[in-house]
UniProtKB/TrEMBL annotation:
Region (Disordered): 1-27, 248-270
Full protein name: GntR family transcriptional regulator
Presence of keyword Transcription: yes
This protein's UniProt keywords: DNA-binding, Transcription, Transcription regulation
Length: 270
């Protein structure tokens, strides 16, 4: 046994401490650096994505790698990695000779995204109307109160967050929170468009009224009515596309629908 141990020690690379497994020293040194870079990439991705979806970074606006790196106190590598992820999401466009820019909203993609979201959320609201406990209905009404407070304060970001929480809560009450997770994956461009519509006069009160009707249907345990109201609520997003695009032509790419109301009808299940 002693000779075997001696041979194992003699076989180790020069400078390796006795009992150390070869390769572990290098691996240990690299892992923290890789982990730190991955963390920085994720943080930059979340920050830029949040700014783009909230329209704090406008479509067509340049994103300068150097400035982002300096603001986060990192090298350009995690910034590039974050931008590649955002490009995969369709939120930035990278032109090797020109730079990186916030992508314009693809207007032709909005109807399909709304149809997919409507299908997912109508399923959720039907189950919610069957399964909701009184405490869960109370939670929905509390959320609507929060929406009213953010509206009164003129807090558009706060209203959007409360709106998102409202729809997420419906999926949780349904017992299928994954439905909301799936909806979020397809509605990112719709969210950008929605942020442009919130300042429109009467828009938020109208949304609040629709939310209230949905909650009433859930409380009444009427899945058919809840689904009907959710379909109207989400389909209404498409009605103002022509006006919103007309008011912000440089924020969109692609041709606007010829008839938004027709698109809505075609996307509404019979």
């Amino acid at each position: 046994m002693a000779s075997t141990s001696r041979r194992a020690l003699d076989a180790q690379p020069p400078g390796t401490a006795p009992g150390t497994v070869p390769g572990k020293v290098l691996g240990t040194a690299k892992e923290p650096r890789l982990s730190a870079r991955a963390t920085a990439t994720a943080e930059i991705y979340r920050s830029l994505r949040g700014d783009i979806v909230a329209m704090r970074r406008k479509p067509g606006e340049p994103i300068v790698e150097k400035h982002v790196a300096e603001s986060f106190g990192v090298s350009r590598t995690p910034v590039r990695e974050a931008l590649l992820r955002l490009a995969d999401d369709g939120l930035v466009e990278i032109f090797p000779q020109s730079g990186t820019f916030v992508a314009r909203i693809p207007v032709n993609a909005l109807p399909e995204a709304v149809v997919i979201r409507t299908s997912l959320e109508c399923t959720a609201v039907r189950y919610a109307a069957v399964r909701a406990a009184r405490s869960q209905v109370a939670a929905l009404r509390a959320n609507i109160l929060l929406q009213q407070e953010t509206m009164a304060a003129g807090d558009l970001d706060g209203f959007h967050e409360a709106d998102e929480a409202f729809h997420s809560l419906i999926s949780e009450i349904a017992g299928f929170p994954g439905l909301w997770n799936m909806a979020q994956q397809v509605k990112v461009q719709v969210d950008r468009y929605r942020r442009l519509t919130l300042p429109e006069p009467g828009r938020i009160p109208h949304v609040l009224a629709e939310h209230g009707g949905i909650v009433d249907a859930i409380a009444a345990r009427d899945p058919a009515e809840a689904e009907r109201l959710m379909t109207i609520h989400l389909g209404a997003l498409l009605e103002s596309v022509p006006n919103t695009q007309g008011a912000n032509p440089f924020f969109f790419s692609g041709a606007q629908p010829d008839d938004a109301s027709k698109t809505k009808k075609e996307s509404t299940p019979s």
